[in-house]
Amino acid sequence: MIYLQNCTYINSETLEFCNTDILIEEGLQGNIHFYHQKPADLQLNEIIDCKGKLVTHSFANGHHHIYSALARGMCAPKKSPANFYEVLQYIWWTLDKCLDKDMIKASALATAIACAKNGVSFVIDHHASPMAIENSLQIIASAFDEVGVSHLLCYEITDRDGLDKAAQGLDETETYLKSHQGLVGLHASFTVGDDTIKKAVGLTEKYHSGIHIHIAEDGYDQQHCIDNYGCRVIDRMQKHGLLHFGKNILGHCLFLSESEKKMIANSPSWVVQNMESNLNNRVGYFDGKDMGDRIMLGTDGMHSDMLQSARSVFLAGKDHEMMGPQAVYQRFRKAHQYIHQHNFKGDAANNLVVLDYDSPTEINASNFTGHFVYGLTSKHVQHVISNGKLIVKDGIVTTVNETEVLEFCREMGNKLWVEMLK
Ligand SMILES: [Zn+2]
C-alpha cells in the first residue's frame, strides 16, 4: 500500500479541500482512507511526502485513438486535403492501413505513457488498423496494462475497406468482449451500411455493451445519410435501435438539427466533445446546448493531455457555449460518471494525481475552477497512482523503461512513414 503524507486533498466532486494523510489500497476496486497520523502497524510499500502538494482524483479521456500516436512529425500527405473527407482519405485511412502489430503495440505504449504522465489513468479508445485487425485490441490492452493505465477499448467496424474487413472488425469485437470490458466501435454513418449496423447492434445486445461511434463530425456525414438513406444521421441510428444503449458514446455531434439534439438528450446515450481535433480539422464548434448533460471530453487522438483539452474547451468555447470554469470542470469530470454508472473497472477512489502546483495566489474550494482553467497544466503532474499503484513518480513512468519504449516507437514510426509513401 502507498501512504501519502501531509496532502492537501481535493474532493474531485465537491471540490472540498482538506489537509490529510491518505492510505491507498491496491487493486481494481481499491479504496482510500484518510488519517491525521500514520498508524504504527501498517505494512507500506511507499511513503510519499506531499507537503504543499494538491492531491485529487486522476483524469479520464472519453475519446482517444492510439492509432494516431506515430503520426507526429510525419511528412505531408500525397495530396493536401481540401475537406474533411480528404483528411480521412489522405491522412488517417492511409496511415491506419499501414499499421502492423508491432506498430500498434508501439502506438499503444506511447499513448499509455503520454496519458500517465499527464495524470490520465483511464482511457476510452477507438481503434482502427484494417490490415491488422485480429488481436489488435488485445495488443492495445496489454500495452496499457503494462504501463498501468485502465482502458475501455473498441475496434472501429466499418465497410470502407469492404464487407470482409467489416466482418473481421465484428469478429475482433466479439472475441475481445468475451473476456474484457469494452464497447462495440463503429466508424461513422457514412462508412457503415445497414447490415453492418444491424450486426453491431446485435453484438451490443449480446454483450450488454454500448456503441462508440463518430456522429456528424462534418456536414458530409449528414449529406451522405440524406442522399443514401433519406434521413438524417440520428434518425438513422434511431431506426436501427442504436440510441437506447446507456453505454453508447457518440463522438463529436457537431452537425445536428435541434430535433436530433433532443433525441440524444431523451436517450441514455453519452456524447463526447473533442474541441482541439475539431479545430484542427476545421469542422466547426461543438455546441452542447439542448443535448442533455451527459457530455464528456476527449482528445480524439490529437494528444493525451486532458487538462489542455479542458482549457481549449473553455477558451475556444467561450463564443459558442459561454461556459464558465465551473461548467467546463464538470464536463471534464463527466467521464468518471460514465465509467461508474456502467460499472466499468479501473477508476475507483484509488486513482489519484499529485500536483506540484506552485501558485502565486491562494487556491481553495471557492476559486479552484479558476485555477483549473487558467493555471493548472500537465507540467504540475508529479505523481500518478493508478489502481493503487504508483505508475508515475516525479514525472517518470515507473512501470516501463520510457527510453527503451520511445526508441522502439521511433523505429516503428520510421517504418510506418516509409510504408505510407509506397
Ligand atoms: Zn475520433
Poorly predicted parts: none
First-residue to last-residue Cα separation: 51 Å
CATH H level, superfamily name of the largest domain: Metal-dependent hydrolases
Number of helices: 13
* Secondary-structure content class: alpha/beta
Q: Specify the overall morphology.
A: globular
The share of residues in helices is 25-40%
Distinct small molecules: zinc ion
Query: Approximately how much beta-strand content do the residues carry?
Result: 15-25%
What is the mean pLDDT? Answer: 96
Radius of gyration over all CA atoms, rounded: 21 Å
Quantity of strands, as a count: 18
And the CATH topology of the largest domain?
TIM Barrel
Reading off the top of the CATH hierarchy, the class of the largest domain is best stated as Alpha Beta
How many domains would you count in the coordinates? 2
CATH architecture of the largest domain: Alpha-Beta Barrel
- Largest sheet composition: 9 strands, mixed
Can you characterise this structure?
- The protein is of the alpha/beta class and 422 residues long.
- The protein has helices at 84-98, 101-117, 136-147, 163-177, 194-206, 219-229, 233-239, 258-266, 275-280, 306-316, 325-341, 368-374, 402-421; strands at residues 2-10, 17-24, 32-35, 46-49, 54-57, 59-64, 120-125, 150-152, 156-157, 184-188, 211-215, 249-252, 270-273, 295-297, 352-355, 381-386, 389-393, 396-397.
- The protein has 2 domains: 2-58 and 347-396, Urease, subunit C, domain 1; 59-341, TIM Barrel.
- It has 13 helices and 18 strands.
- The strands form 3 sheets. Strands 1, 2, 3, 4, 5, 15, 16, 17 and 18 form a 9-stranded mixed β-sheet that branches.
- Strand 1 (2-10) and strand 2 (17-24) form a beta hairpin.
- Helix 4 (163-177) packs parallel to helix 5 and helix 11 packs across helix 12 (368-374).
- The longest helix is centred in the last third of the chain and has 20 residues, at 402-421.
- The model has no long low-confidence stretch (mean pLDDT 96).
- The structure holds zinc ion (ZN).
- Zinc ion (ZN) is lined by residues 63, 65, 126, 214, 251, 300.
